[in-house]
Specification:
By secondary structure, the protein is α+β, with helices and mostly antiparallel strands. The protein has 21 helices and 26 strands. The chain folds into 2 domains: 8-285, ATPase, nucleotide binding domain (Nucleotidyltransferase, domain 5, 2-Layer Sandwich), CATH 3.30.420.40; 293-465 and 510-541, ATPase, nucleotide binding domain (Nucleotidyltransferase, domain 5), CATH 3.30.420.40. It starts with 7 loop residues before the first strand and ends with a helix. The chain binds D-xylulose (XUL). Residues 298-483 form the Carbohydrate kinase FGGY C-terminal domain.
């Protein structure tokens, strides 16, 4: 074991609404958790939910400097709480996937010579060619997506190379949009250096004091990487922008040790000069590590976005869902489906129908029956990813559209709709619920047992949770530890064999399958109809 109880490993997560950190000791016990909320603790950036939604409602960005200042604040909080940074043997982390940071000419010099007397945000304020980073909630790049698919020979061909058809939020289309709409800012970025980062590699750059490479797993969310060869796909790069290979730098395995923390951290916070920086990755790959997902399990993350992910060996990319390189096993992959309308609609309906109280929200779930008397709803407050549709749609037991539900019915309709969508799309990807299937739940909403009961009933499978709701942070602390052990040839599973196992939270209610099997068919048919109507309305425009 790398270092025993005295040593410690940090996992950071630069997520949509906050920056979080978890420290585990050499015995894999969580010893510290801390966070900085962007909206409330950094109000000067005027974000809502950590982002700025622009007037077109499609463009969504976050200020690059907000992430930097959040790190200043978080490290100071830890120091003020007496955290001993000298114990940290290695750090790693994750970031919201797909978002990009455009470093400006000269930024590398600044990163190389950070002054330990000053805050990071004061030193890095001139370092960004774009102050606002495109993030995963953006859906403004439909034109670029069409162009990219056409350039490589179609949606399926792009999926065969990169693991996904073109998606608006993926970094390739985002870069293409910036190249075409902001040519001046684009040319501001230095050639021959790794100057366009993902949020994850940007965050590791802050610790390394130099541009850090993009890891294979988060790199899979760009529509630019060949996930089988694990290198940039030239045809995809060329379709997005010129000289992209130089602007993106090299790719690296997710378990790579990139170097040691820069002098800034040793002098300002007392980190040991030997403290290693392990490649950062995406938040969903980080969660896969934190939940110690095994083949056959299905993970459901309930956060700002909801995601469903699986560990797979022989991926067959299709035009639905994504295949990413696996962050903890170089020979494996993970499949992922992303739902944009996660915690925001849950919080909105809690406010509108339960007076802002999770207890009343839970009581409504307990007082309504499985299947909600046939009432079904889809709550796409913003343009959804899976399926690509918008608006709130309610249907009664006869399949007729209705404009409202009673409050308790609305609450159950929201959750059943969210979970039916997850099961329908997981099964479309070929996932089968078998006798031994475990559903592992994580994210903020996974601490609510009544929500988990609905999840368990809809999937007709037991739901397990881990103690820590932030599995991405935990997974990255584990990854940091494993990267040091990997030098001895230990696999991630071997390194983690003594970590706490996920615990059974709820079992499905008897009779759940009889209720939800027909509802799944109804849900899938209604969704298909909705998409057809949406396509028709686009043609009429
Ligand atoms: C995954 C995705 C989101 C972000 C959220 O494809 O877009 O889950 O990673 O942080």
């Amino acid at each position: 074991m790398a270092g025993g109880a005295d040593s410690c490993f940090l996992g950071f997560d630069f997520s949509t609404q906050q920056l979080k950190v978890i420290a585990v000791d050499g015995n894999l016990e969580v010893i510290v958790q801390s966070s900085v909320q962007f909206d409330s603790e950094l109000p000067e950036f005027r974000t809502r939910g950590g982002v700025h939604i622009h007037d077109d409602k499609l463009t969504v960005t976050s200020p690059a400097l907000m992430f930097v200042k959040a790190l200043d604040v978080l490290l100071e909080k830890m120091r003020n709480a007496g955290f001993d940074f000298s114990r940290v043997k290695a750090i790693s982390g994750s970031g919201q996937q797909h978002g990009s940071v455009f470093w400006r000419k000269g930024a590398r010099q600044t990163l190389n010579h950070l002054d330990p007397q000053k805050h990071l945000h004061l030193q890095l304020q001139e370092c960004f060619a774009l102050q606002d980073c495109p993030v995963w909630m953006d859906s403004s790049t439909s034109d670029q997506c069409q162009f990219l698919e056409a350039a490589v020979g179609g949606a399926q061909r792009l999926a065969d190379i990169t693991g996904s058809r073109a998606y608006e939020r993926f970094t390739g289309s985002q870069i293409a949009k910036i190249y075409r709409s902001k040519p001046e800012e684009f040319s501001e970025t230095e050639v021959k250096l790794n100057r366009i980062s993902l949020i994850s590699s940007f965050a590791s750059s802050l610790f390394l004091g130099d541009y850090a490479p993009i890891d294979f797993s988060d790199g899979s969310g760009m529509n630019l990487m060949d996930i089988f060869e694990r290198r940039w796909s030239q045809v995809c790069l060329d379709a997005a922008a010129p000289q992209l290979a130089e602007r993106l730098g090299d790719l690296t395995p997710s378990a790579a040790v990139l170097g040691c923390v820069s002098l800034y951290y040793t002098e300002r916070f007392g980190f040991a000069p030997s403290c290693k920086v392990v490649a950062f990755t995406g938040d969903n790959p980080g969660s896969l590590a934190g939940m110690r997902l095994q083949e056959g399990d299905l993970a459901v993350s309930l956060g700002t976005s909801d995601t469903v992910f699986l560990w797979i060996r022989d991926p067959r990319p299709s035009t639905e869902g994504h295949i990413f390189c696996n962050p903890v096993d170089c020979g494996a992959y993970m499949a992922l489906i992303c739902f944009k309308n996660g915690s925001f609609p849950r919080e909105r309906i809690r406010d509108e129908c339960a007076g802002g109280s999770w207890e009343r929200f839970s009581a409504a779930l307990r007082s309504t029956p499985m299947g909600n008397h046939g009432n079904l709803g889809m709550y796409f407050d913003v343009m959804e990813i899976t399926p690509p549709a918008a608006g709130v749609h309610r249907f009664n037991a006869e399949g007729q559209r209705v404009s409202w539900f009673e409050q308790d019915v609305e609450i159950r309709a929201l959750l059943e709709g969210q979970f039916l969508a997850k099961r329908v799309h997981a099964e479309k990807l070929g996932y089968k619920i078998l006798a031994g299937t475990r559903v592992l739940a994580t994210g903020g909403a996974s601490s609510n047992k009544d929500i988990l009961q609905v999840l368990s009933d809809v999937f007709n499978a037991p739901v397990y949770t881990i103690d820590v709701t932030d599995s991405a942070c935990l997974g990255c602390a584990y990854r940091a530890l494993h990267a040091l052990e990997a030098e001895t040839g230990a696999s991630f599973t071997e390194t983690l064999r003594n970590a706490p196992e996920p615990q059974l939270a709820v079992r499905p209610t008897p009779g759940a399958q009889e209720v939800y099997a027909p509802l799944m068919l109804r849900y899938a048919a209604l969704e298909a109809q909705l998409l057809k109507d949406h396509q028709k309305s686009l043609h009429l425009l």
